[in-house]
């Protein structure tokens, strides 16, 4: 088993080749099913049931390769016509242990709707294998601005101002609503994948659910964001990508990342 490598292949087939319980974290951003209607990889299933069955199979493999104290993050989306994910969540939570449901607040909406609210969020279903999981909420903090820190320090209830200041400087703990701007237009980070996730978002997931040296597995690597985020934080990683073009793109981004490190 070679680490820190992009595997060009089918997610389900390649996952089956991996040993049991090797990954501390799994981050999966699969096709959402008929959301990106111009992409063949998102419209390849004839029925929602076909898609749901496929998802059940690859998720089962992801949980198999996950360590007992690991966490699996699965991206999805809800909207007027993007409702399949709600059925998938229901099924997966009956088959595996539910841990959390994270809302990714994209900060801006997309695909304006005539007769419903503009979607502004995506969802991340978090699954586990046991009650005891590795989770470091201190690794994902939201900084207070200077004015807020100054205001809090005026609170007379806190006698040890230095200790209070040190606490405030660390920032507040994140909630399960993560506000990270999506990659739009001419954003420098955007590299051509239509469903590319921001590095800042994936960085948070990896930081809270793994330590340096741990293995992160991504069965739908796409443009390589998970691999870049993992490597930049000292984690090992394995990425699987079916598309030869996207696998090439991921390798190119990784090469650039390593050259600038």
From TrEMBL:
Organism encoding this protein: Prosthecobacter dejongeii
Gene Ontology CC, one term: cytoplasm
InterPro entries in alphabetical order: DNA_methylase_N4/N6, RM_Methyltransferase, SAM-dependent_MTases_sf
Keyword Cytoplasm: no
Family: Belongs to the N(4)/N(6)-methyltransferase family.
Keywords: Methyltransferase, Transferase
GO biological process: methylation
Name listed for the protein in its UniProt record: Methyltransferase
Domain DNA methylase N-4/N-6 residues, every copy: 24-251
